[in-house]
């Protein structure tokens, strides 16, 4: 009898917790259509970008970069866009010399060039500030992802080689959004300043496997 008295509060607590969890799941199930309705109704507006960027290399391992890319996604609110994209970066190493290959691990399986094409794959986050969609406004854009040197050859720099393994890719931009069509506020030209970082520990240098490429430049884009 004493044992039953001790277990009764535990049973009541367990039932209360079960009913509470069921109520939470029920509430979540009721809210799910509201969460999905913007996507199903099309109020999350499709949006696309295409851009061209020219950047000058910074630091010891420098590469000037010409880039063309596109981002496709949805305008979730008047100030927030998120999408995915890809591009083609052509990198021109500023190194004028020629490295000895003798001490670079794994290098003999690859040649080396001072010009290389890279394929960035990224998630794109864009925030717009000030003004309606048909007015001049400012933006901050952030791209995060990975980039890959195309082909079998490595890219040669002053103290080593950038390999064709995956590299971390970061590209923030800040600038102005300029509407170009009074009857369609989604169409605009963007002018911005862009920084780009490419880095990983998958490379071959005299100091180890880490290498970073930094570049700063100018971007012009068209959005619709």
Automatic annotation (TrEMBL):
Top-level taxonomic group: Bacteria
Leader sequence residues: 1-23
Keywords: Signal
Name listed for the protein in its UniProt record: Outer membrane protein beta-barrel domain-containing protein
Organism: Muribaculum intestinale
